Amino acid sequence: MERAPTADQLLHVWEQGRSQTPVQRARSLLALAAPGASAEDLARYGIGRRDQELLRLYERIFGPLLTGVAQCPACGQEVELDFLAADLWPQRDPDSDQLHVLQLAGYDMSFRLPTCDDLAALDPRDDAPAQRASLLRRCIAEVRLNGEAAAADTLPEALTTALSGRMAELDPQGDIQLALSCPRCAHLWQAPLDIASYLWSEIHAWAGRMLRDVHALAAAYGWREADILAMSPWRRQAYLEMIRQ
Question: Do residues 73 and 189 lie in contact, with contact meaning Cβ atoms separated by under 8 Å?
Answer without folding.
Answer: yes
